[in-house]
Amino acid sequence: MSSEALIILIYILVLASFLGFELIAKVPPTLHTPLMSGSNAISGITIVGALLACNEMGYTTISKWMGMVALVLATINVVGGYTVTDRMLKMFKKR
Amino acid sequence: MSIAIELAYLIASILFVLGMKMMNKTKSARQGNRLSALGMFIAILATMLQIDAISLVEILACIVLGSAIGLYYANKVEMTKMPEMVAIFNGFGGLASFSVALSDYFLRTEVNMQSIELVTVISIIVSVFIGGLTFTGSLIAYLKLNGNISGSPITFKGQHAINLVLFLGFLTAAVFTVVDQTDPMLIIILIVIALILGVLTVIPIGGADMPVVISLLNSYSGMAACATGFILNNNVLIVAGSLVGASGIILTQIMCKAMNRSLINVLLGGFGQTVN
């Protein structure tokens, strides 16, 4: 990785972090748990990394197996996370 | 990487930001969650096209298996058990980042026999540390809320000293890993310490404080995803990871305030509880 590429990645990291700080400044207490659950589902973005890690032929390397384990776990996090959040929020509307 | 895939990642990032913003208000929250799910779907689809996943049957199998498990438990769980569910899903997310980092490490050192750049080695170590800690920490949080282990704080003498020694041990092993990347023994030491630290940092915290802990661990799993983004040089992982990492910290603070607890007090549970 060139130092220019690294600097761009750090820019992205810093700016996205500031955005994250600002995004949820005034959230009402009832939404704490759904927001936590929803952002947990977003952290399942590591599924993209898992997909890339699986991209290898054959089943002979530790690397491939770790990638597949990661993919199953990340999929559980993403699918389960969004479903659970949706269920919580559905309950809200009825009240 | 083609420009179309980069654009798809950009759209996904925008949807995550919008979705999170909409989840601040009760009215738009459900829509926001769906928007963020759409972003995730786009990111996954773009990645699958990039690696031509259709030809890799095992990838589809892993996704089907993961989706089935996720859907089953997400639909089965009772509403009162939601925090536990979030904890365990979060733990899986942390373990996934941890596994991606290790997969990449073994790919480079054992398959490709190449040396790893400094930034990448450090990112792998960070991802293993935060991911591993998030996994075991979330597992303990789950077991405490579920009543499998006592919800009351488990403390013993010299707890903080042991944590400090373990952390310093981790740092030492990390430095050696940077120097000699190919020694698998060092990686195993890093893994073991990260997993133990997750257990040790959560067991002294009382059951009532668990929601705060889960929120903090959620923030950690975002940071782990972010570190994984640095390993793979992937923008969407860094954006989504740092969004979750930063907002998770703020949310943790807000939750602490709502419960009239200070974050430091919760984290150093042992101290906080004995004072009470």
TrEMBL record, chain A:
One Pfam family this sequence matches: PNTB_4TM
MF-aspect GO terms: NADP binding; proton-translocating NAD(P)+ transhydrogenase activity
UniProt catalytic activity: NAD(+) + NADPH + H(+)(in) = NADH + NADP(+) + H(+)(out)
Superkingdom, taxonomy of origin: Bacteria
Membrane topology qualifier: Multi-pass membrane protein
Keyword tags: Cell inner membrane, Cell membrane, Membrane, NAD, NADP, Translocase, Transmembrane, Transmembrane helix
InterPro entries in the record: NADP_transhyd_a_C (IPR024605)
Compartments in which it is found: Cell inner membrane
Catalytic class of the enzyme: translocase
NAD(P) transhydrogenase alpha subunit C-terminal domain mapped to chain residues: 10-94
Protein name: proton-translocating NAD(P)(+) transhydrogenase
